[in-house]
Specification:
Length: 479
Amino acid sequence: MKAALVVCFLSVCLCYQPCSAQIQESFFGLHQNKYTKGEPWPTVPFAIRRSVSDIVAWSDLEGCPGGPDPNDPCYHWGTNLKGGNLDKVVNDSYAHGVDVMFTVYSVPDWASTRGSRCRGAGNPDKNCAGPPDDECGSHKHKRLQVIGSCDPPYDVDAVVGSGEGDGSDKLFKDFVTAVATRYGKKIKYWEMWNEAPNIRFANPDHFTFKQFARMTKDFRDAVKRVNPDAIVLGANTCYCTPPGSAQFQSWTEGYFTALDKYGPSVVDAVSYHGYWHPEKIVELVRVLREIADKHPSTRGKPFYDTEDAWPGRLSLRTASGALDWDAQAAWFARSMILRAAEGTKAYIFFGWDLYPKANMWSREKIDACTIPNRDGQPGYLCPLASIYERARTWLLGAVFDKSCTAQRQAGGRVWGCDFTKSDGSYHGRFVWYDGRGDKATYTPERQYVIARNLDGSTTDLKTKGPLSLGQTPVLLEMK
C-alpha cells in the first residue's frame, strides 16, 4: 500500500554551508564521448566541456619525451593513435563560447615506473620501480588500458619509487607547459587528475600523497606561468568502487595534508565526483567540506562536481527491463538542484551521448530518443535533453540563501529548497519526495500560487488542493 503523507513545511536542515552564490551559466557542464567520431556539437546550452571523454589523456598526447616545446614531434595535438583530437576539442569549444576543463591523468608507458618495459625494480633500467602494472585503465575497454598509466612518472622522486616526491618532476612539468603554451587562455579550467583514489587511474599501492602533492604544485606553477587567470583544481577525489581503490575519506585527508606543504594557493578549487543517490550527496559534501576546512591548502575553496550520473550498478530501468526515462529525469533534476543548493560551483553531467547509460542524444532513432536534433544537425534528442534545459532554466540566476530541508515521513523524506531570483523579487521552492514507489501529499503555504512540472505543465494552486509528490521535483512559485 502506497503511503499518503501530509506535509506543510520542512524543518530538518541538511545543507552544511552558506549557499548564497547565484547560479551562473558556468554551473552547467557536459561530457561528450564521440565528438571526434563525427558527432555534431551538442545542441543544448552548456558552459564547460570536460576533456576526460575526448581521449586526450597524457598518454594519448605525448608518445615520447617531448619537452616543454609544443612543436616537438613527440606530441599529438591533432588526431592521435586512439582517435582523440585535442586541437579540435579546444578550438571548437572556443568557437562555441564553451570553456574547456582539461584533466591531466594517465602517465605514458615510457614515463611510468611500472610500464610495459619493466621487469622489476631497476630492471631493465633504473627508472623501473617494479614489474608492469596492469591494474591501470578501463578493464571493460582494453583500448583505454595503458600499462603503468596509474603509476607515478619515474622522475617525481629523487630515488625512483621512494614515494617522496622530491625529484625534478621534469617529465610532467614539461608536458603541462607544452599544453598550456599551445592553447593559452583557450583552456580555462585545469584539473590535476581524474579519480585519484581509483586504482584504475592511480594505484594507491604505488602513487603516494607526497607525489600527488608535488605534481599538483608543479601543475599549478606550469599553468599559471602561461595563464595566470586559469582555474586550477586539485586531484579529483571520489567514492570509487573498483577493488583495490583507496577509501574516500582517508585518501582525501592524506592528499590535502600533503598539499599543505605548498601553501594556501596551491589549488584554486576542490574537485570531486558524485555518482551517489542525489540526496546522499549532501552528506558527501559535508564530509568533504569538513576535511577541506582543516587544511590551509583547501580551506574555503569552492567545490566542483566534475563528473556525475547515476552509478553504473544502478540501471534505472522499469520492471520489464526498459529504460525508465522518468526515473532518469527525476534523478538528474534532483542532482542538479542539490548541487546548486549546497554550493557546488559547477556540475558536469556524464553525458551527452552515452546511450543506454545516460544520454541526451542518440545517432539513431531508438527507444524514446525520437525528437529530431536541432539546427539541421544529425541524430535525435532523448527525453533528458528537455529535462536538462528546463531544470537549467529553473536554476539559472537562483540564489539559495538558506539550507535545503527535509522531513522524514514513512519510507522517505519530503525535501524543500527555497531560493530567490531577480534581487529577491522572485521566490521559488523545489519540492519532492524521495521514497521509492510512494507518494507524499504536500500542502504548500498560501503564498505559493503556481506549481511547475518538469514536463512543462503547470498547476494553479489557488484552485487545487494538496499536491501529490513523487521523486520528480516540482517548482512552486509565489505571487
